[in-house]
Amino acid sequence: MPQKALIIIDVQNALCSGEYKTFNSENVISTINSLSNVARKKQLPVIFVQHQAKDGPLKEQSKGWQLAEGLIKEEDDIIVQKRFSDAFKDTDLAAQLSSLDVSELVICGMQSEFCVDSTLRHALSRGFSITVVSDAHTTLDTRVLDAKTISAHHNETWANISSYKYTPKVMSAKAIEESL
After folding, report:
1. Strand duo 78-82 + 169-171: pairing
2. Residues β-bridged to residue 3
3. Taking residues 94-109, what's their average pLDDT?
4. Residue 84 and residue 135: Cα distance in Å, rounded?
5. Residue pLDDT, tens place only, 161-170
6. Rounded to the nearest 10 degrees, how much is the dihedral formed by the CA atoms of 84, 87, 92, 96?
């Protein structure tokens, strides 16, 4: 029977503290923990996507590369390592989802306009139904826009993508928890 999976993208130490700390990361982590707890209780797969780089703040095996402090990962959760903003590119994510008979992804994480967006759009092109957790993705301020505006803009954009089989649903974590 097809099922949903929770995809948690790049919630890593480097994006939750210091120079690259994302907006509202503590609340995002708390929201993700609550949602992942509900997903596990419903026996839905929880998949952590972890970006690894050859150098920089997300250098593989560095403190910044590790999953964020306070983020709850259970033994049965899956970790997918990636080197590109798209969590499907050169990873086993598609194979993992296929083996679990997953047809709908619930997506959250960091950064809204990079890895979350790239992964979401690739998933749409593969025919997945998508639900974005509107209050569990975030990013950094840029020279042009603040992080809160970037995330809000992406929520609006994703909810209006209509060129694929499915239009993404954009819902709060609370609404998603009630619908799982």
Report:
1. unpaired
2. 102
3. 98
4. 24
5. 999 999 999 9
6. 170
The residue count of the chain comes to 180
Residues with Cβ within 8 Å of 170's Cβ and at least 6 positions away in sequence, in order, are 131, 132, 134, 155, 156, 158, 159
- Alpha-carbon distance of 105 to 6, in angstroms, equals 6
Domain count, the chain: 1
Helix (H, G, I), strand (E, B) or coil at 48: strand
Q: Which residues in 20-178 belong to E strands, given as ranges?
A: 46-51, 78-82, 102-110, 129-138, 169-171
**CATH code for the domain of 155:** 3.40.50.850
Side chain identity at residue 109, one-letter code: G
Task: Measure the CA dihedral 137/178/48/78, to 10°.
Answer: -170
pTM: 0.97
In the predicted structure, residue 160 carries a pLDDT above the cut 90:
yes
Cα separation, 8 vs 158, in Å, equals 17
Residue-number span of the structural domain to which 108 is assigned: 3-179
The residue type found at 119 is T
